[in-house]
User: What shape does this take?
Amino acid sequence: MSPQEFDLARQQLLAKLKEKSVFFGDFLLSSGGRSPFYIDCRLTTLDPEGACLVGRVLNAMIQEELAVSGQRVKAVGGLTMGADPVALAIAIASFCEKSPVLLPAFSVRKAPKAHGQTKLIEGNFTAGDSVVVLDDVVTRGDSTLKAIESVEQAGGKVAFVAVLVDREEGGSEKIRAMGHKLLCAFKRVELTGVIP
Assistant: This one.
């Protein structure tokens, strides 16, 4: 994807997120805090056009990071369910756009499956793999850190983290403090106009 194509796709995705995923009011967050806005990325990541744009934008960002850093990764994924549509969108985009690196998807369960292979990580992941951990929105970073911990406990290595939206409420700093590079497509001010 050329820089011009990336900029266009990013602007289209920003417009889609603002249209479908940003709400203003008084909201109770999973962290227990309250917020004058709420970002529900699933309304975009599960939308046909939104999913396509998410895949194109994040795939381009990941491909660029891999080209610059020289790292090799086997797959992308994160904690269900926020990361699931993001991972699948990136996987599809990496194939459809004939990207240098194909990016199969995996999903981290919140608890191991109680039957079958009793896996905690489903999909395209095996011990020893280097992967990109994803999230749709990072607030305090807890779900992203749980996904990182699960990957590492299963014998994987986290190359870096990529997120769709950073709410700029300490989560990205917490992830970086754990030694992980974090790529972010959008910051909250771009979606909400609310300065942290």
In short: The beta strands are 22-28, 34-39, 75-79, 105-108, 121-123, 130-138, 157-166, 182-187. The domain at 3-192 is CATH 3.40.50.2020 (Rossmann fold). The chain has a mean pLDDT of 93.
